[in-house]
Design brief:
Layout lengths: L2 E5 L4 E6 L6 E4 L6 H11 L7 E5 L4 E2 L2 E2 L15 H4 L5 E4 L18 H22 L7 E7 L12 H20 L4 E8 L13 H11 L8 H12 L10 E4 L14
Helix pairs in contact: 3-4
The protein binds nicotinamide-adenine-dinucleotide.
The site of nicotinamide-adenine-dinucleotide has 15 residues, from strand 8.
């Protein structure tokens, strides 16, 4: 996460962002209002990428709100809503997963401690981390969507430790939904059928899984990326406003099957 640090104290407002070597500054003074400060910072930070803003304020702050106007600056700082002025976030799509390639072939029983930790860290903990960072910016509520797979609840050969990571991810979705629901932030997962993407090519036998899916899924076609995109759009928009903590399957109905005996 890139942070934009803003130092308001002293003769200048100074800013620096993650990855930048040289700080930038503009003059402060007894007329400087918080709106001037935000406008100045936004202008000065143009071209810098940042996901969060950290502000050093020369006075007491409680729960992110200034409680007394500073001596050397203008008026209007008390209770000023910096989060709102710097912009807000409406939704977040988490679409990250990784396990070392050697963990995605052979038997699950051979999973290494290191491979387990890496898979869970990148594929499940990352959702908690990014949601925690995004939530304070979702000042008007928000929606978080992540991507999961049936291997979380059924055994899919070679999916191995990723199945455990996806189980942790889906459980995290429920806990996050519970924590953030009162702020009107919804958290859901889309469980997609197998799609031959860069990441999926790391799973041994992915092509066979796609063919198998096309043959047996009730809708008789392989899952398409656009189908997942459409469902994400639904969940991220107000159309999904009553849904949180849910795992929605976009897999042509494959997960409902209890038998692979064809009736045709
Ligand atoms: N392709 C499928 O069959 C399928 C099915 C169900 C769910 N999913 C899930 O969809 C999501 C997206 O995967 P995809 O199949 O579109 O593949 P993808 O390769 O397009 O996306 C995976 C992304 O994870 C990122 N990533 C990996 N390790 C990372 C790390 N340490 N830090 C930051 N980013 C990292 C990669 O840069 C990549 O952008 C994943 O969560 C995947 O498990 C995929």
């Amino acid at each position: 996460m890139n942070v934009l640090a803003v130092d308001i104290g002293g003769t200048h407002v100074k800013i620096l962002a993650t990855g930048q070597k040289e700080p930038r500054r503009f003059p402060s003074g007894p007329e400087l209002t918080p709106k001037d400060m935000v406008a100045g910072v936004k202008k000065l930070a143009q071209g810098w990428k940042y996901d969060a803003v950290s502000i050093g304020y020369p006075g007491p702050v409680i729960h992110g709100r200034v409680v007394s106007d500073p001596h050397n600056l203008g008026k209007g700082w008390v209770a000023f809503d910096f989060g709102k002025e710097f912009g807000k976030l409406d939704f977040l799509v988490h679409s990250v997963a990784f396990a070392p390639r050697e963990e995605l072939t052979g038997q699950f029983v051979n999973t290494t401690r290191k491979g387990f930790a890496t898979a869970l860290d990148v594929s499940a903990y990352s959702l908690i981390a990014v949601t925690r960072a995004a939530a304070p910016l979702m000042t008007d509520g928000g929606s978080v969507v992540t991507l999961t797979y049936l291997g979380s609840e059924r055994v899919v050969p070679h999916y191995n430790v990723m199945g455990v990571a996806k189980a942790a991810l889906e459980s995290s979705v429920r806990y996050l939904a519970h924590d953030l629901g009162p702020k009107n932030i919804r958290v859901n997962a889309i469980s997609a059928g197998p799609i031959r993407t860069l990441a999926a090519r790391g799973v041994a036998g992915i092509s066979k899984m796609v063919d198998h899916h096309r043959e047996f899924a009730p809708l008789r076609h392989a899952t398409e990326q656009s189908e997942c995109g459409d469902t994400a759009l639904f969940l991220l928009s107000s159309l999904g406003r009553g849904i949180t903590g849910e795992v929605i399957y976009v897999d042509g109905g494959y997960h409902i099957l209890g038998s692979l005996l064809s009736t045709e």
